[in-house]
Recover the amino acids of this structure.
């Protein structure tokens, strides 16, 4: 990977988070000599960097090291890069249409070398370790940090000891082992696993990563903020004249230790200080109902987190019961800047995993999908407005979750013997296989979609297609639709109200006037707020009214299936 040399001499000062005392940077950083606190912030020469950046950035590749001047590494020869960062900011068109959120973006952190944003941490921390001449390192993890640190340690020739709670899925343990790391499986919660790792590191005199207390982890995560601000400006334009980059209204992330949001916020603070953005986004931090120490503590307005001692969630990656210093930090930010904490049940997280895969083509682990489940909930509550600029962090491996998402029949099997059956002289196998394949596509019910907006029609079709057993015909205006209805005699009609020339009301009138079509069930899907009068006109004429942007695919499918069963 291409090394990105610093254009300015790196100058870093460590500032005590508690008392503000400043000292020169050192690794490992000692506690504050004035107050003893061990949480430090890195400070740089922002004015010098601000004046040089516009010109420097033009020539740089889009990796995390693009922002090299704001990373605490002194000598570029220790820089380790496997292409981390520079991940795309994807506009979520389908989901945005379903939710009625036109400015919804997904920061696709899956596209890092080991598929999670932990690669940003690993790249910087392992580079810093190399610079400090460290040859062995201890890390505790719920899976993804261990995978990522293993890859980068292997690249750097550092020996890594990983401590994992036994609930970490075997697929992840296996990957860690393959990189050549030591895997220590601890039959306990993650919080106890962390203690075991710390004891081991002390006992053996091996350096501990120290998670969020290591400034490298937070400094690395802030590069996500820099990228989002640069990328949003590309899509939506600069914030205003003289302020070249752009902040979203909301950043949403599933959290455990809180490294991501602490880093993200620091990044925006630096951008704001340098005049590259005009404000700092609010953050919505999501946890699982069964392990939500930050959410519970925030609801009680506690400045320090109350631990959850026995986490009860299947979303292992974020099952951290003792959040550490991040909570207090994030609590203050949320109080000051208006962010929020929210929790979601595992069932909603699994549903979101499935929705994102089916509707956006993004397969992710449940820990990443929890952020989307949180988004759905916060939109429902009105905490996040649908017209706001929203960035959801999608970090996380694709992962064997089908047992949670799909029924037992999720794979369609075709074998030769299926069709050969009892026939005395079996047909040639190719023909049998074709016969069996035909049966895969057995479509029982016919649905006509009448919708003038082709994007909305495509979305409805997509939702129906994910169940595979509907025959779908699509019309883009009322007249075309009536012709389709006469031809297909569908089992159901999905009708938009606002269409050119023959609108939804006219279609309903035409159906009513025809003896043969009068009883066809109709679901109205509309973007329009209907008036009292219009609602009255629809009474008795339709089975159901769905407001666009307020239904999720599963709701629609459940409603349709329920309706078709009755017909
Ligand atoms: C690590 C991780 C998180 C939580 O990250 P923090 O910001 O440290 O709380 C969420 N999702 C995935 C997929 C992760 O790997
Ligand atoms: Zn101090």
């Amino acid at each position: 990977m291409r090394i990105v040399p610093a254009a300015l001499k790196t100058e870093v000062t460590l500032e005590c988070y508690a008392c503000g005392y400043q000292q020169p940077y050192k690794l490992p950083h000692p506690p504050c000599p004035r107050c003893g606190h061990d949480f430090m912030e890195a400070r740089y020469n922002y004015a010098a960097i601000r004046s040089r950046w516009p010109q420097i950035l033009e020539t740089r590749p889009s990796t995390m090291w693009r922002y090299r001047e704001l990373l605490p590494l002194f000598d570029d020869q220790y820089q380790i890069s496997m292409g981390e960062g520079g991940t795309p900011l994807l506009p979520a068109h389908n989901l945005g249409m379903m939710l009625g959120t036109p400015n919804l973006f997904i920061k696709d952190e899956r596209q890092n070398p080991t598929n999670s944003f932990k690669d940003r941490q690993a790249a910087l921390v392992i580079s810093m370790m190399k610079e400090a001449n460290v040859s062995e390192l201890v890390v505790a993890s719920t899976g993804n940090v261990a995978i990522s640190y293993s890859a980068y340690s292997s690249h750097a020739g550092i020996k890594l000891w990983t401590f994992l709670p036994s609930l970490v899925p075997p697929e992840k343990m296996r990957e860690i082992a393959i990189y050549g790391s030591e895997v220590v499986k601890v039959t306990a919660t993650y919080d106890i696993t962390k203690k075991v790792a710390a004891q081991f590191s002390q006992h053996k005199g091996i350096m501990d990563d120290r998670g969020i207390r290591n400034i490298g982890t937070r400094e690395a995560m802030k590069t996500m903020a820099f990228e989002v601000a640069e990328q949003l400006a590309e899509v939506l334009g600069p914030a205003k004249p003289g302020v070249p980059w752009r902040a979203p209204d909301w950043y949403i992330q599933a959290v455990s230790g809180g490294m991501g949001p602490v880093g993200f916020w620091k990044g925006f603070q630096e951008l704001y200080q340098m005049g590259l953005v005009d404000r700092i986004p609010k953050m919505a931090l999501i946890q699982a109902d069964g392990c939500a120490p930050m959410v519970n503590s925030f609801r009680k307005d506690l400045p320090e987190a109350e631990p959850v001692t026995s986490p009860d969630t299947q979303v292992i990656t974020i099952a951290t019961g003792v959040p550490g210093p991040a909570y207090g930090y994030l609590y203050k930010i949320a109080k000051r800047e208006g962010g929020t904490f929210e929790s979601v049940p595992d069932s909603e997280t699994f549903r979101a995993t499935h929705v994102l895969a089916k509707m956006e083509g993004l397969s992710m682990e449940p820990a990443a999908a929890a952020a989307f489940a949180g988004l759905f909930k916060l939109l429902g509550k009105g905490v996040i407005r649908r017209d706001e600029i929203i960035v959801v962090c999608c970090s996380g491996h694709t992962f064997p979750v089908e047992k949670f998402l799909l029924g037992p029949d999720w794979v369609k099997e075709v074998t030769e013997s299926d069709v050969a059956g009892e026939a005395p002289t079996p047909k040639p196998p190719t023909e049998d296989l074709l016969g069996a394949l035909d049966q895969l596509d057995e479509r029982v019910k016919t649905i006509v979609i009448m919708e003038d907006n082709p994007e909305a029609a495509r979305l409805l079709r997509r939702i129906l297609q994910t169940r595979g057993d509907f025959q779908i015909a699509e019309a883009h205006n009322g007249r075309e639709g009536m012709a389709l209805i006469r031809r297909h005699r569908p089992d159901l009609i999905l009708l938009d109200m606002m269409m050119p020339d023959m609108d939804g009301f006219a279609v309903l009138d035409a159906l009513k006037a025809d003896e043969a079509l009068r009883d066809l069930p109709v679901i109205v899907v509309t973007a329009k707020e209907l008036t009292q009068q219009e609602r009255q006109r629809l009474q008795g004429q339709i089975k159901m009214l769905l407001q666009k942007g307020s239904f999720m695919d599963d709701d629609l499918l459940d409603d349709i299936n329920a309706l078709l069963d009755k017909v």
About this structure: The two ends are 61 Å apart (CA to CA). Residues 116, 118, 144, 254-261, 317-318, 365, 367-368, 395-396 surround pyridoxal-5'-phosphate (ligand 1) (CB under 6 Å). Residues 215-236 form the longest helix (22 residues). The chain has a mean pLDDT of 90.
